[in-house]
Model the fold of this input.
Amino acid sequence: MSQFIPVSEPSITQKEVDYVADAVKSGWVSSHGEYLLEFEERFADFIGTRYAVSNCNGTVALHLALLVLGIKSGDEVIVPDLTFVATANAVSYTGAKPVFVDIERNSWCIDPCDIERAITEKTKAIIPVHLYGHPANMDDIVAIAKKHSLYIIEDCAEAHGAEYKGIKVGSFGDLSAFSFYGNKVITTGEGGMITTDNEEYYRKAKYLRDHAMSEEKRYWHTDIGYNYRMTNIQAALGVAQLERIQEILEKKRQIFEWYHKCLSNVSDIVLNPETSWAKNIFWMVSIVLTHATNNKRDDLMLKLKNDGIETRPFFYPLSDMPMYTTHRKTDTSVAHYISERGINLPSSAKLTFEDVEYVCGKIKEWKSSTL
Ligand SMILES: *Cc1c(COP(=O)(O)O)cnc(C)c1O
Done:
């Protein structure tokens, strides 16, 4: 039997094909068009914010959010040590410095106590990341931000639809950033979105996204802006995906429940957390091998690969990467512990119960052979 189960693949139906074809045929192929307006309006509706601004990718959405808040050289921005590199890189693009802090063992997201420890006069903002679909501890983060007059930018790239105490993430920050890369909850190929309730931030994000062109006078530019726009073709794909997001999220929860059932009696393997405040969307169903060293983790990944099962290691702590080793950080031992032992399992909405059973069977096989 030769099969291949990928970690992630997009869920594309005839609806997506039809909308994209419609956008192409309409001639509105660049950054104007009905699908763009519709995508932004409906996305804001879905998250529960007043405004949404589309971008060419999630990294750019983060960069633009930082620019809107005036983050610049000499400033510091607090980020979790365990996240995709884009979170920190976007800070670096502005000339500011990312400062790395630890995560919580029970949520895999930024630890509010550590945020407080890392604050200095230079600190301007916090970027909580809702890692692998689990919301960060927003009440505590919002309280700290208020107390120290800091901005919050939520990195929601992996958490479309995740909820903190019944409220969708992407509505807690001054601005929030989403990604629509091919492996995210919904996709536009490449793409990103900023959400906000603040009209001034909304206007400034649109202005900087479009070469900082004056609203009154075309081709008069009053700042060095950017071309960070999404195309109408991408937005067409986005509208179709957004119309199906409920179905995709329900399937993801189902897949997590299948894994949970199949692995529930296996010792030393912990699945994604879901704290009392959280509705996790399980962007990536993941396991942490609580008793394994780094080598053991890689050994399991190799075995699964030979069985036609693709997996991913967790992100590496950013403070260990060459460009960030000299940056300020707190003790990030939980980030290191989770990073070394974590694996993302196949998580596409296309998976069947039989696929999940097969993956879990191979994990159990490895487990009994290594004891
Ligand atoms: C994917 C991702 C991004 C960046 O999004 P792109 O669209 O790939 O630029 C940022 N932060 C996190 C946590 C991500 O997972």
Residues 14-243 form a domain with the Aspartate Aminotransferase; domain 2 fold (CATH 3.40.640.10). The mean pLDDT is 96. The chain has two domains: 14-243, 246-370.
